[in-house]
Amino acid sequence: MPEAGGAEGGKQCRSTFIRPHLVVDDEGYVCDRKLAFDNRGSQCCGKRTPATQHTCKQCDKDSGCCLEYEHCVSCCLHSSNQANLKAGDVWEQCIDRCRTSAKTIEGVWNGYRTDLKHCYGAGDPPDYNHANLDVSEEDITTVKAESANQDCNDACRAKGKECSPAGFFHINKCAALKDHFPCKECEESLGAEQPAYELEGNKRCLYSKSTRVITCGARHEATKRLCACQ
């Protein structure tokens, strides 16, 4: 195994970068460009530890989309993420996939609809803004409202916690709703009071098309909210 100080003797790496502050080598190590390579001209990251290899902290596991290009390539190189790659050079395929995807462009405005614009996976990138990166799924406690027309501020405070606006990214999905409500159907909608469960009619579970519109204070007389608390 390589030591923390650099690659094994004689090892030569390929490397790539887009951002001015990071670089990734072909063994999935990510390092600071200012302190990047070992002193042998190998193009291998000089600091090589488990924490700097296959770094997926800034990636969404479900879609395979990442904030940084270098982290995208690093995650793509992990053996668990190569099932959808073709036979051939994994390095070149990961580089190609992780360049900005057309899937992340917002319509005619040509703006990014998500900060996670580097995707190694085949899924659509999530509606994810930079603020979400400060809150991991492990930081969130999911709480369902006790009654209709209760907002998430009240639901979270009843449990001794505060509502986390950024945390809605992690629970705004069918799987989370089905864990807490007896959903007959699960349907994409658009609303500040979602994700939520309909108490009458079709008794659907509703998740919002965009997490950007969800607020802690929204409520609806016909639904129970699912809340992200911290």
Task: Characterise the protein shown here.
With 230 residues, this protein is an alpha+beta fold. It folds into two domains: 15-130, no CATH class; 133-229, no CATH class. It is 15% helix and 19% strand. It is built from five helices and 13 strands. The chain has a five-stranded mixed sheet. Helix 1 (69-76) packs antiparallel against helix 2 (90-98). The protein starts with 14 loop residues before the first strand and ends with a strand. 38% of the residues are buried. Mean pLDDT is 84; it is low at 1-6.
Keywords:
230 residues; five-stranded mixed β-sheet; three-stranded antiparallel β-sheet; 5 helices; disordered N terminus
> What helical percentage do the residues reach?
10-25%
**Biggest β-sheet description:** 5 strands, mixed
Could you give the distance between the termini?
39 Å
Structural class: alpha+beta
- Count of DSSP helices? 5
Mean pLDDT: 84
Strand order of the largest sheet: 9-13-11-12-10
Number of domains: 2
Low-pLDDT stretches: 1-6
What is the element string, with H for helices and E for strands?
EEEEEHHEEEEHHHEEEE
Query: How many beta strands in the DSSP annotation?
Result: 13
Radius of gyration: 21 Å
Strand content is 15-25%
* Tertiary shape: elongated
Layout of strands and helices, then pairs:
Elements: E1 15-16, E2 22-25, E3 30-32, E4 59-60, E5 65-66, H1 69-76, H2 90-98, E6 105-106, E7 111-112, E8 118-119, E9 141-144, H3 152-157, H4 168-171, H5 174-180, E10 185-189, E11 196-198, E12 204-208, E13 223-229
Parallel strand pairs: 10-12
Antiparallel strand pairs: 1-2, 2-3, 4-5, 5-8, 6-7, 9-13, 11-12, 11-13
